[in-house]
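A common beginner's mistake is to predict each chain separately and then try to dock the pieces by hand. The better habit, illustrated here, is to supply every component at once so that their relative placement is modeled jointly.
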Amino acid sequence: MSLRTDTDRPPFDRVLIANRGEIAVRVIRACRDLGISPIAVHSDADADSLHVRAADGSERIGPPAAAESYLSIDAVIDAALRSRAAAVHPGYGFLSENAAFARAVESAGLTFIGPPPATLEALGNKLAARRAAESAGVPIVPGTTVALGDDTSALEKIGFPVMLKAAAGGGGRGMRRVDAMTDVADSIAAARREAEAAFGDGTIYVERVVRPARHVEVQLLGDRHGALAVLGERDCSIQRRHQKLVEESPSPAVTPEIRTALFESARRVARTVDFHNAATVEFLLDADGHHYFLEMNTRLQVEHGVTELVSGLDLVAWQIRVAAGEALPPAVLEPSLGGHAIEVRIYAEDPYAGFRPTAGRIEAWRMPGGPGVRVDTATEARTDLRTEYDPLLAKVMVHAADRSAAVARLRRALDETLIGGLQTDSAFLRWLTDSTPFVSGAYDTGFIDEHWGSGPDLSELDRGLAAAAALEGRRSDGAHAGWTAIPDPSSGWGSAARRDALRR
Amino acid sequence: MTAFEARVAGRPTQGPAGWSIAWVDRSEGIARATNGETSVLLLVEGSGQEWWVTIRGRRIGVEVRSWRERVLAEAETSAQVAGGPVTVAATLPGLIVTVAVSVGDEVEAGATLLTIEAMKMQNEVRAPRSGRVSEVSVSSGQAVATGAPLLRLE
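With all components supplied together, the output reads:
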């Protein structure tokens, strides 16, 4: 199915992309496919960034700090008006789920490419969303449906361990696990503080920890005429700090029966609000195949590409088209999902140090290619890492006929991936493609803690290869080519050093 | 030809027998190692004595020294006095959220000294050894760069 024909008019003449990095580049590409002129925004830190150079123009929106640029509603609205854009795409993160921003876009006479402001508001409060889902007959994770006050006796009834969550939260932020009553006071104080700092709202609620559990989400796409498409599920169970690292579709844990139940629950949650555009309904799936509603994210997800690979649909293009009033055609409403897709997120994080963010400069940067491989990135070689923003460097996605072929393709793609200058999580991701639980599909949200920890010790082979390669690096003068046999270890460093010393 | 010694994490390391290495692109530092049955792509970065080799995503630091360089380096190391004052520096750039200690406090090894927020995460900075806090150079709300001195232990 082609996106447009020569007789089609573009849904909008010009769209402002209120984001940065790989997602801005991704939206720019969808705009170009649709014949729309894309306009970027940038903070002073991003004046030379790839997303700025990829667009038809770019508006400066402030200093490097996100709070004064990408999170500034006034600055972004001004930029949209200056650029004479007809619509604003918020990407993910930043202002994408901010109801006040969506309202400000509409008040300025522009189209917000996302769900209606009232829907963002209703679902932005995770506690209110829990209540709405429960009243719609959707199972929710056992826990409280009112804000946690000073009376913590509710926690004992729920049963430890429990998870404290920020009502205004999402994306793994403001979450804290509590294992026993003795830790409760400190944990609640810390969770409130984090929530207050991150979202300006310290409201906390409680969910029981479901474990083992898988994190499975359902992709929705709706038009302004009431049609709702369910575009399959994604399994996002490989997580660190409650944030996703790997996503795949379909989920190896989802049987046809579970899928039917998940899709029905997702539809029910969507029906509690006035919904159009793209959203994702997230669930936990326990070992018995029961699912529990977690939250509904009213925006494009980081991992949307996985769904695009199995459905053949361009979700970003459809976001733009339904925002312009187009009705979803049968090909979207009854999508034919095929093959298996996996995405891995490459972050500037050290997997051998608890996935702690790394700082520095990207020196070498080589991404994989070839059949069935897609890379979404805005990272380039010889650039300094921006520590003001999210440390996501790239999303490597693969698509193949079935899961085992997709895992093999992912392994191949990661073998082609070379990143210099700093440690990234790609070492973990490559290891993952050889780990038995992942290869067999039998993994859950506890996978990294249970199976990776702080990673395996350096093998003797890798240690030796590193030494040999570094020696080769130092010896070569740049004109070197051809195979070099590694010297026989028995030749000995000591005798070579003595010979060397004698010559001096 | 000068002979070199390679050390990984301080340990002298030989190349594995039966393997050979060829440059795929010397200017980009890309090489392939093979043992005739299987092969792996390597990224080789560095110059002089300091090298980094990335294998299947894992970045491995390698010291490459001639005998002369090694003797000089060892002389320098032994000149440094062990057990003196320690400066605790920021290992990542971020914002100081809390400072848990003040000058004069006695701390145990592993005690939380302060918290730095970076890229959505709160990172605790812990005492590398036990001692007395002799100086605190930062306060909460302050932005710090990598390597910035935070406090001093004696």
